Amino acid sequence: MTEIRSLAETREPEAATDWWRSSVIYQIYPRSFADANGDGMGDLPGITARLQSLADLGVDAIWLSPFFKSPQKDAGYDVSDYCDVDPLFGTLEDFDAMIAHAHELGLRVIVDLVPNHCSDQHPWFQKALASAPGSPERERFIFHDAPDAGLPNNWESVFGGPMWTQTVNPDGTPGQYYLHIFDSSQPDFNWHNDEVREMFRDVLRFWLDRGTDGFRVDVAHGLIKSDGLPDYVVDPAAASMGGTEELAPWWGQDGVHEIYRDWRKVLDEYEGDRVLCAEAWVSPLSLMAKWVRSDEMHQAFNFPYLSCSFNAAQIRATIDESLQEFAAVGAPSTWVLSNHDVVRHATRLALTEDNPQGEGIGPLTPNLPDPAIGLRRARSASTLMLALPGGAYLYQGEELGLPEVVELPDEARQDPTWFRTNGKRYGRDGCRVPIPWETGAPAAGFSPTGNSWLPQPAGWEDYARDVQSATPDSTLNLYISLLRLRRNHDLGLGTLEWLDTGDPDVLAFKNNDVVVVSSFAGSERELPACTIDLTVIASSAPQPSERQIAAESTVWLRG
Fold first, then answer.
1. Is 231 a catalytic residue?
2. What pTM, to 2 d.p., does this model score?
3. How far apart are CA 21 and CA 332, in angstroms?
4. Looking at the record's lineage, which domain of life comes first (predicted)?
């Protein structure tokens, strides 16, 4: 580790121009990354204190999930002030110190922006509740007169239950309804309103002026709803955030693109190649590519790739489609396997039952996966992903091989999904448990007092960073090696060329001077003929011999 640390400390930041085309960006979920003050909640000073570990890992940038002022009913995705830091996480001065240290280490900083909705405690919404129907204050949101019976339409919230909540008039009589795609504490903005658009331009500039390198845009396929708000019933097997080819009338409407063209103009006012990345759960990829046309966003999360099962044919088809569709608009593809909204891929890739995004898993989930199989597949999938051209996203803890936490007590759960479905869906808490840093330390090094806003399971410290740093074949050291090789061989800016393997369960491709072979088979296989005279330079698992590849593993080779 000494040599790796030295390399990380001395490396130069990538050139500003188009750095995002090949970047590896590490998602920090602030609540669960590192707690400096001991209250059990991760914070900005905790992030600052641990940034060196991310420079050592070899990533190019960090993305922070929301740390704005918030009642925290949806873990900060319910914002009450877009231009201040919630005291849970620190202060604006703490943010400035964090971004300054990140830049010293050659790391760029991406901030999570939540434009679809705010908190019901936001001053604008409080003014709307205190104002009359039809008032300018209410026009900033989506209010609807109460029908004679029922609700304004049949839309169901992503978190369960109706997408409408009725207000109460000052005289105590029932008032208008307001729309919320998510929780009732998260009213949607009316993006046809000029005041809303101007407010968010100001928010962009506020954080750009503080040195922020860009924004990950939450629910970037929301914001605009279909005219007339027509009734619509979602397929119960669909992911909660969309992703089906038939778009719900609150997802993927054409009007969102005008908004992002406007935002792109704001970012282009600034030096340093600031970026926008879309969280747009839409399908097919040809539709997703609309978010990254040359005058809109720079990147879009590749959710079809994240949604692939551990299957060679499906993976290859998705890679081909991704490279084709993003290249058609001049954008890089991105690759991602885990984030704060999905079951961690060290568990998900071994699930044998359907598990729609947002549903989560828990103690009563049938056929819970074998952890060893999950980790083996996760290491292989990550090794394949980091060899692909384009940008890549990592979610905190995946470099430690963290599994989904299944055995969370009911009373500890905090995801709105759990409450709005009366416990029928577990939600996302299992991927948000605070990560382990050191064995034998309070809360495995997450917090100096041992406090933890979600309980860490027994055995969690076995995944700790200090243990893995000292273990040559650990998942952490695998990631460090892969990221170093990815940079040295310029794989992010390379070109993928498929190679014949003669085996439907084995994929092989060349990117620059590296050949990648990935086996999805349940038993060892012979390495394909295209690898003769090549030497393994990285491997997700020990290989049985020089000419064989282990079951469910990936190797990188070079002449």
1. no
2. 0.94
3. 6
4. Bacteria
